[in-house]
Every structure is written in C-alpha cells, then in structure tokens.
C-alpha cells in the first residue's frame, strides 16, 4: 500500500511539474525597457556612432542594468527594439527576449527562464525520484529474471526492459539535476556558465552570487512550504537582480555598509543605482541607498563610459 501511494504521489508531482514547465509562458521585459517611438526613429535615422550611443544611453540611464556587451556597449536587441535587462537573452527559436534565460529545451518545447525555472528543476527532481522508485521496486524481479525464478512468459522481457530504461534515465537525470543544483547554488544560468556576465568594468562569473542561502531563495522563494510544489514562488520581477558587485562611487564620502565589507568586492567599482524591491528584498541585511546618492548618480550613468557602442546580441 505504501509503495502504491508513493508511486501515485511521484507520478502526479512529475506530471504537474512537467505541465507547468511546458505551458508556463516565458516572461518578456516590461515596457520600460522598450524604446519609445521617438527613440526608435532616432536610432534608425542616425548612423552608427556617437549619435546611436547617445540614444541608448538616454534610454537606459534610469534602468536598473549593470551588464554590458563584450565591447562595453549597452545590451540592445534590434529585433525586439529594447534595452536588454540583466540576464535577459534573445531566443532564436522563440524569436523574443526571455528574462533570465537559461536555455531553450526541445524536450519541453519551451524556453527555460525566470518564469518556469523552478518548475523545470522540480520536473527533473520528480522525474529522477520516479525512475529511482521504478528501478528499486523492479530490482527483485530483475534478479529473479537472471536466476530463472520467473515463469517463462513474455512478462520476463517487460521486466528487463523496464529496469534498464528506469536505470538509464536515472543516470542521465541525476547528472542533469546535479548540474542545475550547482547552478542554483552559484546563482548562474547555463548561458552564464558558457559566457560569464560582463559588468561595466570587468567580467565576473560570480557577479550575481549572494551566498548559498540567498541564491536558493531567489529561485524557490521565502515560503518553504511552497518549495516542493510546482507553484511560482521565485523572488523578484525577472528584470532586475541584486549583485554583490554594486558599490558606490569611490569619490563619494558615504558607502553603504555590508556591500563592500569584504576585501573580495573592494576592487569592483560600479555606479550606484536605486535598487528595486526585488533587489532590496534579498539584501535586507544592508541599508538602502540614500536618495541623494541615487539622484546624483542618475545624471552620471549615461556618460560614465565614453567607449560605449551599440552591439547586437543573441
């Protein structure tokens, strides 16, 4: 009876998480990241150069973005006509920008990103548990198959096939699930592993890592009772993310405590911008930015890097 109940529980959670992974639409950047009609006209009318740089700087100066392209330009998508939020990428299959895109999965025919990454993790976890459960309960009959302890019927071959299929899927799923657990612990995506995020002054593969506990909460949320259920509980809005590399300008007298308390982050110099609710929620142990500092930096963000050039990314 216990095995039968466990079988149905694993199966229902597996189907539920798989369904949510497939049919949850990936989230796209909000309207504030899209260029206005006048900015689009200016961008198309001006030749590539300082004029286009100025248009993009003007459009992105009040946006909570910290990452850049390899050449130091603001990340812009010429297909969606928007300034890309941090960790957002354009999917060539879906032909749209996906927030915190991890990869496009052909097995679910959907992009895995901010809106369904938790569902994808639970799908892998429950698939692995389901396969391990099948392999464990079928093991005794598989042993009898080799010791000629089963009746000589066609069911013998069904038992052998079921055990091998469950065992092979368990091996492949365990490696994939372990890899994504490592990504969650480091607060990375698959795309960021292959190409580390580039911030305004340097490339840092651990720029979005806040520590194991906060990294876990960013994906699964604060309410532990929802962690094992395929319901959306991730923190943030998908457009802005807290980063351990955001420090105040070194010329300013006051520095928020806690953000650069370790020697590891003292060498990172990034413009201070007002944190969104999704960011400050994960940085509750540090004071918020002062209003005067935020206003002072707004006018400086657009002109802080004179080498900016527009570059299209996929």
From TrEMBL:
Its EC number is 2.3.1.225. This is Palmitoyltransferase. Residues 74-193 form the Palmitoyltransferase DHHC domain. The keyword Transmembrane helix applies. It catalyses: L-cysteinyl-[protein] + hexadecanoyl-CoA = S-hexadecanoyl-L-cysteinyl-[protein] + CoA. Residues 252-314 are annotated as: Disordered. One of its GO terms (molecular function) is protein-cysteine S-palmitoyltransferase activity. The gene is Zdhhc2. Residues 252-264, 280-293 have a biased composition (Polar residues). Belongs to the DHHC palmitoyltransferase family. PANTHER family: PALMITOYLTRANSFERASE ZDHHC16. InterPro entries: Palmitoyltrfase_DHHC (IPR001594), PFA4/ZDH16/20/ERF2-like (IPR039859). It is an enzyme of class 2 (transferase).
């Amino acid at each position: 009876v216990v095995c039968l109940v466990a079988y149905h529980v694993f199966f229902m959670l597996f189907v539920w998480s798989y369904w949510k992974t497939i049919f949850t639409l990936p989230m796209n950047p909000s309207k504030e990241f899209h260029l206005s009609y006048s900015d689009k006209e200016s961008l198309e009318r001006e030749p590539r150069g300082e004029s286009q740089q100025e248009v993009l700087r003007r459009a992105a100066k009040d946006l909570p973005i910290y990452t850049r392209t390899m050449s130091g330009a603001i990340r812009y998508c010429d297909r969606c006509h928007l300034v890309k939020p941090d960790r957002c990428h354009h999917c060539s299959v879906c032909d749209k920008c996906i927030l915190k895109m991890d990869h496009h999965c052909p097995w679910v025919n959907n992009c895995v990103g901010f809106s369904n990454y938790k569902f994808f993790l639970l799908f892998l976890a429950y698939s692995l548990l389901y396969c391990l459960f099948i392999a464990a309960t079928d093991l005794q009959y598989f042993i009898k198959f080799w010791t000629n302890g089963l009746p000589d019927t066609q069911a013998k071959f069904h038992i052998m096939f079921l055990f091998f299929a469950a065992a092979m899927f368990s091996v492949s799923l365990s490696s994939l699930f372990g890899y994504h657990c490592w990504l969650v612990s480091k607060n990375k995506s698959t795309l960021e592993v292959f190409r580390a995020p580039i911030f305004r002054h340097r490339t840092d593969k651990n720029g979005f890592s806040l520590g194991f506990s906060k990294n876990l909460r960013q994906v699964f949320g604060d309410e532990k009772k929802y962690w094992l259920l395929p319901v959306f509980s991730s923190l943030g809005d998908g457009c802005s993310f807290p980063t351990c590399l955001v420090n105040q300008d070194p010329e300013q007298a006051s520095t928020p405590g806690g953000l650069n308390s370790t020697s590891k982050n003292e060498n990172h110099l990034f413009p201070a911008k007002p944190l969104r609710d999704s960011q400050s929620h994960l940085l509750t142990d540090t004071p918020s930015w002062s209003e005067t500092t935020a206003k002072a930096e707004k006018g400086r963000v657009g002109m802080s890097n004179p080498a900016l050039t527009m570059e299209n990314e996929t």
